[in-house]
Amino acid sequence: MDTRLLTTFTTLARTASFTAAAGELHLAQSTVTVHIRTLERDLGVRLFDRLPTGALLTDTGHRLLERAAEVLDTVARLRAACDDTGVVSGRVVVGSPESLCASRLPGVVAALRTSHPEVDVHLYAAGTAECLEGLRSGRLDLALLLEEETEFPDVTGEPVAREPLALVSAPGHPLAARAHAAGWPELAAESFFLLEEGCSYSDALARRLLDVPGGRPRLTRFGSVDAARNCVAAGLGLTLLPLTTVAEELRRGRLVRVDGPRFPDVPVRLARHRRRWAAPAAQEVAQALVRHLGD
């Protein structure tokens, strides 16, 4: 089997778009279509449902995706064994919460471009569940998770940093000028703009607010730090976000910290598939993440 077909298959599975896959692989879109049709004909199955919104894996496609990634891993290992140039190169896909993609990771990518210019790092914003699925399917090489624990049968995670959290509001919010800390009953009467379900610290806050007897918090969930932050800056409520994502707004006075319950720092864990081989490029990216996030 031509492994180029498997590369096209895994790329299309990740991007869900023939156009995006073609751009990433530097192929004509028609070539991507031919690759997928050839692979489907060779295997005798349909791998994708072609929809107006994109290409979605069929159940069979989902089952084959991890196997395809294992084959490509083996091929990459063979090539690495034959490479005596000493130059580390390749594409590395890192899954991460949107808050880390926006605040912590640009500096890591910039440092890698200087130290390893042949390593191409792609950041993929995703929550914990999607990152785990990506590691298992081979769509992701590495993932950063904001979780207390990440021990799974097939995925392991090492702590590399901790993210302080900040409860914030607009300067004019009633809780912003309080002389004493707001308690849970007071917070449970407020509007909150939180990150989408699957964000560990947002989910924990939502559960705590909903557990307050008689509390009626208004909870709005977003997939974007910017959306939550802007709603709060407009005076619509409060949010709980990593301090690094609101530091600039705090400095400029668009947001202020609200005195309330203490929220523990969230561990940042570097997750990898236990059994999948890590290419030299992925190893270098992992070391850079540990080094820079730890600092």
Ordered list of secondary-structure elements with their pairings:
Layout: H1 3-15, H2 18-25, H3 29-43, E1 48-51, E2 54-57, H4 59-82, E3 90-96, H5 98-103, H6 105-115, E4 119-125, H7 128-137, E5 142-146, E6 155-163, E7 165-169, H8 184-187, E8 191-195, H9 200-210, E9 218-222, H10 225-233, E10 238-242, H11 243-252, E11 256-257, E12 266-273, H12 280-294
Parallel strand pairs: 3-4, 3-5, 8-9
Antiparallel strand pairs: 1-2, 5-12, 6-12, 7-10, 7-11
Helix pairs in contact: 1-2, 1-3, 1-4, 2-3, 6-12
Keywords:
12 strands, 22% strand, 46% helix, 12 helices, five-stranded mixed sheet, three-stranded antiparallel sheet, alpha/beta, 295 residues
Describe, in short, the structure shown.
By secondary structure, this protein is α/β, with parallel strands linked by helices.
Structure description:
With 295 residues, this protein is of the alpha/beta class. It has twelve helices and twelve strands. The strands form four sheets. A five-stranded mixed sheet has the order 4-3-5-12-6, with helices on both faces. The protein starts with a helix and ends with a helix.
- The 3D shape can be described as elongated
Instruction: Report strand order across the widest sheet.
Output: 4-3-5-12-6
Largest sheet: 5 strands, mixed
Number of helices: 12
User: What is the mean predicted local confidence, pLDDT?
Assistant: 89
- State which percent range the strand residues make up: 15-25%
- Evaluate the radius of gyration: 22 Å
Stretches with pLDDT under 50, minimum 5 residues: none
